[in-house]
From TrEMBL:
Pfam families hit by this protein: ANAPC3, TPR_12, TPR_8
GO biological process: anaphase-promoting complex-dependent catabolic process; cell division; positive regulation of mitotic metaphase/anaphase transition; protein ubiquitination
Region (Disordered): 1-33, 83-120, 183-205
PROSITE patterns named among the record's database cross-references: TPR, TPR_REGION
Lineage: Eukaryota, Fungi, Dikarya, Basidiomycota, Agaricomycotina
Keywords carried by this UniProt record: Cell cycle, Cell division, Mitosis, Repeat, TPR repeat, Ubl conjugation pathway
Coiled coil, from the record: none
Compositionally biased tracts (Polar residues): 98-109
Alphabetized InterPro entries for the sequence: TPR-like_helical_dom_sf, TPR_rpt
Keyword Disulfide bond: no
Native source organism of the sequence: Sistotremastrum niveocremeum HHB9708
UniProt-recorded name of the protein: TPR-like protein
Biased segments, Pro residues type: 1-13
Keyword Cell division: yes
Composition-biased stretches (Acidic residues): 110-119
Amino acid sequence: MESTPPPHRPFAVPPIQRLQSPTRNRRVRHSLSESFSFGPQSLVNSSLLSAGTRSPTITRQQALALDPNASLLYTSPRFHKRTKKTASTLPPEHDVFSASQGTATVPNTQEEDEGEDLDWGPVDRMRLWRHDAMMQHLHETAAFWGDKILSWTNDPNDAFWLAQIYFMMHRYARAERILTRPFPLPDSKPPDKSVHTNGNPASQPPAFPSLASTSMYPINEQPPMWKGKGKEEVLTLDPLDEDEDASRLVDMSVACRYLAAQCLVSQGKWAEAVEMLGESNPFKGTARSGPTFANNDGGLKVEASMCHLRGVLMLKLNRTDRAKECFMEALALDVKCFDAFEHLVGGEMMTADEEWEFVQGLAYREQTPEDADFVKLIYVSRLKKYKHIEEQAEARRRLVEDYRLMDNPDILHAFADALYVQFRWQDCYTITSRILDLVVIHAPTMPLYIACMYHLPHLHSKLFMRAHEMVDREPEAAITWYAVGMWYLTSKKWGEARKYFSKTSLMDPRFAPAWIAFGHTFALEGEHDHAVTAYSTAARLFQGSHLPLMFVGMEHLQLSNLALADEALKAAHIMCNQDPLLMNELGVLAFHRREYPQAVDFFLKALSLAEMDQSSELVWTTTYVNLGTSYRKIGHLEKAKECYEKVLNIDPRMTAALSLLGIVYHMLGNLDRAIDLYHEVIHPYF
């Protein structure tokens, strides 16, 4: 949906005297749709004006609050260095509205005169209580004192921190209310000394500058006429808002708008959240936006975080393509935004080629010159392992040797993922077990760990125990019920397994292994039509993975729908042409079409890729059998015999290879040897 346009005539709210009560004479608004400002355009206009003019009314502090290229580091709880007997009621941290980096320092008590005490007012002390309670996860305590502070000060900075506390407590509606309701702007009138300053005139809070008073106006446009007699200026607004001599926090700070959007997302208000953030990045193309602009304070750009949140919203609204664009924009704006990277790569939103090209083209040097190599190596190690194998192996080696991350779970996961792609399940299980020894639950590792236990029969009992342990420890995690479903899959209880895979996908719709396993339950049960439907759904959700399309093609082969199988397998081949399993399936398709020379080429390519991956030969015995049969069809009996004999050297009891080798000897005229092989197939233990 399109965001609501800004008002026809922009307006501003000047600094006013403190209202008698934050809630008196103010219409109560319960939703964003009832506010006088909807989308982020007014905030963008303020940011543009603060960046493009040198008006004395727009201070550096205001510009910092409106800068989408900044992070939230300047809102961290830090102490101001105070002189003796001049304690201020400003919060002992950089605030989200009027902060100026570099002006605050950690107090050094050694520099203070011995025996001199700092004069802290009640508000100062309670702000310390509030932040200390936050650090100790005593959120009720932090909210209790934060609420009292806000009632005393009506300071927007205190309102922001109270909203943060409510968000941590999962009280999203209360946090949203604070951020989106009209809020009185502090004025220069001194508060009650007995309450705020402990009787110290030097500790009066300065007036909070109105961020909206000038920044919402075009340079050549005059503000509307003010009514009043000097002492109490009131802005005449629209009749519906004539009692609103205030401004919302979301219209004064990018950080507040981002937090408000997070609250809406957490409440499931997707449309309102999109309206809060905007359908697209409103800062794109402005003077402060772009991948080449580094973050001045070294943190993460709020603009990138907003793009990531917009991508999450698009996923909620089933707009996958738009979500992909948002995540790519977020990571391009700030290479440190790993959440966006995880959605793109871990969420199977990009093909192997797209991943490589995108990660190689990020502006590492421009954004984080000191750590550019490290960030790039970390990202390269997490990409799909079908292509650029040597480059990824070099990245893993450097992370271990140069950066000493040999026991880091994420680096170990990169090694395990490479082994799993090579079908080296025992080696993969060894590394994943090591990861789980270091950390109890590692989300990217758990699917690999569970899959290895499924593929290795002697670990089925361990899978049973692990699933029970996860149910007891993490019953709310989707991976838990995926493990339960995999246990039932090992027991060939397809219906029970399907039930738990369905539960997993409901708990986490973006968990790709559950969707694939859900389709496997139908395929193993012989319900090929239902399997095609399940795999097709997975292909739609995870457009960067070739596996769902490959499985669709395999099911169509089972149904002898060669045209549909060809369409699905070729689409998978376009996405990934380095998967040996896909090459084998393309060979099977060519064999069914009686294109035997082409089938031989595909089977040889599959075995070549498997050898390059250092895969176990036992996994590829079926491909050797397929290759031998294709050779036999075109009359190359000696080559066919070599293939079957190689299979029997790997697995002497494989009945398919024994019978087919008997046919080859029969065709070669060696009837005695053929009869012996036929007997061995019929009576394998004699």
